[in-house]
Specification:
alpha/beta; OB fold (Dihydrolipoamide Acetyltransferase, E2P); Rossmann fold; 7-stranded parallel β-sheet; 6-stranded parallel β-sheet
């Protein structure tokens, strides 16, 4: 039976786990203290113990009156420390002395045992504590070893104590070192579950520290920055083999190593034991592998099954299709598992979690642990050691390239301090400030690089395109007998103003699905023709290019006047003879407009007088490809269109080289798409509804997150759904389209769907940007919670284009309430820009930005990017650029070098 002190320690630890809410014991700690005091006095064996019990009881009686969490933490920490503190020099902790079976017997009792008397004489303290009660027999102990004759008796030192890093509660000596490093252990030597160390937050870091700068020696700083380009094997402890492994994750230089950031952080101060985990919640588990085996599933699939014990409970873990892990995850190994819990037959389990062998240092230090992207053979500890070595040398030597005035205005941290806390944060508050500085740097450098590029290409003049108001009015009246929206009229006015100047236009036309961007594009092509110049419209896929070609041809036939524009199509699927004819017509000027794909920018394509280019779905093209298109003419004006809504603040940062026109109005008469979120159990009813639409002669999309079934992701796959839906809709034709098909095959399937050769199209995210299918009236998105809101809105835009009532059905396959709540935004809003703002707040900017396609992505931590920080970086970048566009001023010299390093790392900025 545990002693009063043992019981109190467990109660106080539970109180700490529960956040000092005074709920660890019924009636509160103050009320518990009185009864506990009486019991503890009956068990005390020394006078000093009685004094300690009274002292503890007095402190606990004040607990209920304390309202401040920090004050309650102080009381709990004091009592825990007081229980474990040695009461006199050379004696054991009081709690340990409450365990007669685990302590050394007094010397006189040992002597009596050696003399053959197995019943030790009770000490005075034990007689007093027992109040004359019969004494229980002690278990026999082996006699101590005798010292050799003539050797002086050694003085036995007080038992060493291992400090539990956060709360000061020691682990006693005698516990095996491997066990002490394996898990957090109780003070009596019993393994206990990792507790949720709900410690009081550190003092609020109102502003990050910043050291006073000395006068910067530019030459020395330049040498330092040059040193960052040294190969990573120059770092201490990084040999040839480690360097080779680091190269697999893109770490080739010291600069790569320093800025290779964690993908997330695990808080080892906030671990919950298995016994307290709930289903369908993210969890980090630290424990010992008790059992491992291979289980053969149907079809011969080998699953690795293990059982993990953290001292509080066991949990079953299955790695589907990963039988090879059995040789790596061995019994008695200490592991860290990260995943989402679930239940199977009312038992908690993990499936396909992330895992790694426990680094005892992480648990002992109870810190915030960085988790890095890894590759085969690269162990977490090896990477962390390499980063630590690099930080130890470089963190304080790195010259801060951001001007001090900028840091002061923005209240940002020093660069060295930032890097240390990105890799080894002292607290979550420190990490917040470090991320803030790092994200600001990325946005600042990116904007300065893009603004510099914009200035460079604008230095080469373009051909001004001037057309009369009468030409514009007559074309619009002939092509579009209805009034354009205000947004369309403003966009056309912006474009006319741009192209009338010798400075090349570089404008982004951003509009929601169905906002009328195509009408604006037709007007732009007509403007080039009206000025007597050639124009290009480039699309990402052949089928989309064919659709544009038909629209352009049909619209340009309505051009007022005797001469109509000659329109051609250039894609990879046309015949050689037709390609040669188009090449000749573009070179001699007999073709006025060409619509096509990447084939337009291939070598051998020459234009007679290209003055304007329109790119549809710009995120499918890289900056290099846009540059190749510019090279086809005398720096032609460029209009880029996108239907992907991005919040204006974000668009102005990521596309700082582009002027922005936003199509934020919808043409009248467009029927809203009815959207409904359903559970997986509602699939059958959804199929019945789709069947009704098909009987009306309509068509349907069915979108899935995966191409094929995955052992790592429990989600519907398009290939499996295709086989299933062929049976469900056996009266109709079902097609399959996914990204692993060849471009020509995808174009052929989409063309057949547009021609109504298929009734249902089973597809993946390739449907995000597709051809116009006016007859499609319903889209089913399975696993919708796995997509971003902006992407789902793009999917939804595949229907509702033909004047029919249209529907979007979202299947949520997650039990998490927040997943369904997020999807309800699509039920409430049809405005893509509104949804993009919501997506930014809920998921971060990562899904909205993607990358700038060609070249390496340099944007990290985008999920932590806030609108306030974006606006701050925009303002500072423009201030610096307007003041010093060449970055030649002394305070901008280091900044210029960093911008050049960015261009070296990214081919799309060079």
């Amino acid at each position: 039976m545990p002693s009063a002190l043992e019981t109190l320690v467990k109660i106080l630890r539970l109180e700490r786990e529960q956040g000092y809410k005074n709920t660890a014991v019924i009636g509160g700690l103050a009320g518990y203290a009185t009864g506990w005091q009486e019991v503890a006095h009956t068990q005390a064996r020394k006078p000093e113990h009685h004094a300690m019990i009274d002292e503890i009881s007095d402190r606990l009686r004040t607990y209920d009156a304390l309202e401040n969490r920090n004050e309650r933490h102080a009381v709990v920490s004091f009592v825990l420390d007081r229980v474990m503190r040695p009461v006199a020099a050379g004696t054991e902790p009081a709690a340990a002395q409450e365990q007669p079976s685990k302590q050394r017997r007094p010397a006189d009792n040992e002597k009596r045992q050696l003399e053959g008397n197995s019943k030790p004489r009770p000490t005075r303290e034990r007689r007093e504590a027992g109040n004359g009660a019969p004494e229980q027999r002690q278990p026999e102990q082996r006699p101590p070893k005798k010292d050799k004759p003539g050797k002086k008796q050694a003085v036995r030192p007080a038992p060493p104590r291992v400090q539990d890093d956060d709360d000061g509660v020691p682990v006693p000596a005698g516990i095996a070192e491997e066990d002490a490093s394996r898990l957090d252990y109780d003070f009596i030597g019993e393994a206990r579950a990792p507790v949720k160390r709900d410690l009081p937050p550190p003092p609020r870091l109102a502003r990050p520290p910043r050291r006073t700068r000395n006068i910067v020696d530019i030459a020395q700083a330049t040498d330092t920055l040059r040193g960052l380009k040294a190969t990573v094997d120059k770092v201490r402890g990084v040999g040839t083999q480690t360097a080779s492994q680091l190269a697999k994750v893109g770490i080739k230089t010291i600069n790569n190593l320093l800025f290779y950031l964690p993908r997330r952080y695990d808080d080892y101060t906030q671990l919950l034991p298995i016994a307290r985990l709930k289903p369908n919640t993210p969890a980090t588990i630290v424990g010992m592998v008790r059992h491992s085996e291979i289980r053969i599933a149907q079809g011969g699939r080998k699953d690795c099954h293990i059982v993990v014990d953290d001292g509080s409970a066991l949990i079953s873990v299955t790695f589907f299709g990963m039988g090879y892990l059995l040789s790596r995850i061995r019994p008695h190994m200490q592991v860290v598992l990260r995943g989402i819990t679930s239940t199977y037959r009312n038992r908690l389990q993990l499936t396909n979690p992330e895992w790694e062998e426990l680094d005892p240092e992480d648990l002992q230090l109870a810190r915030i642990v960085p988790i890095y992207p890894l590759t085969e053979g690269l162990r977490p500890k090896k990477l962390r050691d390499a980063i630590r070595q690099a930080l130890d040398y470089w963190a304080e030597r790195l010259p801060d390239y951001v001007p001090e005035g900028t840091l002061e205005r923005a209240d940002l941290a020093d660069l060295g301090w930032t890097l240390r806390n990105l890799h080894n944060p002292e607290s979550w508050d420190h990490l917040h400030h470090a991320k803030r500085r790092y994200i600001f740097d990325q946005l600042l450098l990116l904007q300065l690089a893009i603004l510099g590029n914009r200035r460079n290409w604008q230095a080469t003049p373009a051909i001004p395109l001037e057309v009369s108001d009468e030409f514009v009015t007559s074309f619009l009246q002939a092509a579009y007998p209805y009034e354009l929206t205000g947004a369309q009229q403003r966009a056309i006015a912006d474009i006319r103003n741009d192209i009338a100047k010798p400075i090349p236009m570089n404008r982004l036309l951003q509009g929601d699905v169905g906002s009328g961007k195509t009408a604006v594009a037709m007007m732009v092509l007509a403007l080039a023709f009206g000025a007597g110049k050639q124009a290009v419209l480039m699309a990402p896929t052949g089928i989309l290019a064919e659709q544009h070609y038909r629209n352009v041809t049909r619209t340009m036939e309505k051009m007022p006047g005797e001469r109509k524009p000659v329109v051609a199509m250039l894609t990879g699927s046309i015949s050689s003879a037709e390609r040669d004819r188009v090449y000749t017509g573009l070179a001699d000027g007999s073709i006025d407009m060409v619509v096509g794909t990447h084939a337009i920018i291939q070598q051998g394509v020459q234009f007679s007088d290209l003055a304007l280019a329109v790119i549809d779905e710009q995120h499918r093209f890289g900056v290099e490809q846009r540059g190749a298109l510019r090279s086809k003419g005398r720096n032609p004006h460029l209009l880029i269109m996108t239907a992907t809504p991005i919040p204006r603040t974000l668009a102005l940062t990521i596309h700082a080289d582009l002027d922005l026109s936003v199509m934020d109005e919808m043409p009248p008469g467009r029927i809203p798409i009815k959207t409904k979120v359903i559970s997986p159990t509602g699939r059958e009813r959804a199929y019945e509804f789709i069947e009704e639409q098909l009987k009306l002669g309509r068509q349907a999309f069915a979108v899935y997150p995966l191409v094929e079934a995955s052992d790592k992701i429990e989600a519907q796959a398009a290939t499996e759904a295709f086989e299933q839906l062929q049976k469900v809709f056996y009266h109709h034709k079902v097609g399959l389209l996914h990204g692993r098909m060849k471009p020509a095959e995808k174009d052929s399937i989409m063309a057949d769907f547009a021609a109504h050769k298929f009734d249902v199209m089973v597809t993946t995210s390739v449907a995000e940007v597709g051809v116009d299918i006016p007859n499609a009236s319903v889209i089913l998105i399975d696993g919708a919670n796995r997509f971003g809101l902006a992407q789902l809105h793009q999917f939804r835009g595949r229907v509702g284009r033909g004047g029919h009532a249209s529907y979007c059905l979202l299947v949520c396959d997650s039990d998490l309430p927040e997943a369904r709540e997020r999807l309800t935004a699509l039920e409430m809003f049809s405005d893509g820009f509104k949804l993009a703002e919501i997506d930014w707040k809920l998921r971060g900017a990562g899904d909205l930005i993607g990358t700038r396609q060609s070249g390496q992505s340099t944007l990290q931590l985008m999920d932590d990017m806030s609108p306030e920080l974006v606006e701050l970086a925009q303002r500072e970048a423009r201030t610096i650029f307007e003041e010093d566009p060449d970055l030649h001023h002394e305070q901008h010299r280091l900044l210029a070098q960093r911008v050049n390093m960015l261009r070296d790392d990214r081919s799309d900025l060079s």
